[in-house]
Amino acid sequence: MQANEPKQPGQAPEMTQCAHLDHVQITQLPDAVDGCEDCLSSGGEWLHLRICLECGHVGCCDDSPNRHAAAHAAGAQHPLIRSIEPGEDWSWCFIDQTAMRIPGIAGITRIPPSPLG
Fold this sequence. Notes:
Blueprint (H helix, E strand, L loop, with lengths): L1 E2 L11 E2 L20 H6 L6 E4 L5 E3 L7 H9 L3 E4 L7 E3 L4 E3 L17
Antiparallel strand pairs: 1-2, 3-4, 3-5, 5-6, 6-7
């Protein structure tokens, strides 16, 4: 979650909340993935990997040439992703445009090195 500016001086900032946490169906991360599912199918390359928390689809980040995670979120109407990069545990809601940590998601996923470095 991220903080908004306080409305009045001296007030604590309000927190922007994701209204789509009911979409979370994936609470156990896979042990390993082969890479971005769409890049692997099309011969594309990815930079960082994200997992859809509604169906488990693994796509590539917005810094990757094809932005498959965002394309999946828009096409499937699945708003929440989580990074599966080593050491990262943040999630993102495409609709609310907010980052957060979602408690209750367990596991660490082994991923291959990025073809883009």
